[in-house]
Design goal:
single chain; 102 residues; alpha+beta; six-stranded mixed sheet; two-stranded antiparallel sheet
């Protein structure tokens, strides 16, 4: 629900592969799929990085959302790391979670 909102009379989810347009309003989520690597002959690992972007006045919201998403993702996937970053170029905060899909 945090990443959904009405735009042009339509409910949209603000989830984008790799990058979002500069004019896209915050908060939003981007994701990157890494290189698939074989784990066994029957399955592979697929590393995923998700970033939750919040404006410069929303540090607490960024932390709370990242913590909540970390817990949710950890229930289903192998979470490798989670962190909060300040992005000097865009003057935003982002929560970053790295995990593997099997």
């Amino acid at each position: 629900a945090v990443m959904q909102r009405m735009e042009d009379s339509e409910l949209k989810t603000f989830l984008f592969p790799i990058v979002a347009s500069e004019v896209t309003s915050l908060p939003l989520t981007t994701y990157v799929l890494g290189e698939r690597t074989p784990e066994t002959k029957d399955r592979s690992l697929l590393p995923v990085s998700v970033m939750f972007w919040f404006d410069k006045s929303s540090y607490d919201a960024c932390c709370e959302f990242t913590d909540a998403m970390h817990e949710k993702l950890d229930e289903k996937y192998n979470v490798l790391s989670a962190s909060i970053e300040y992005n000097e170029e865009s003057l935003t905060y982002s929560g970053l979670i790295n995990f593997n899909l099997l």
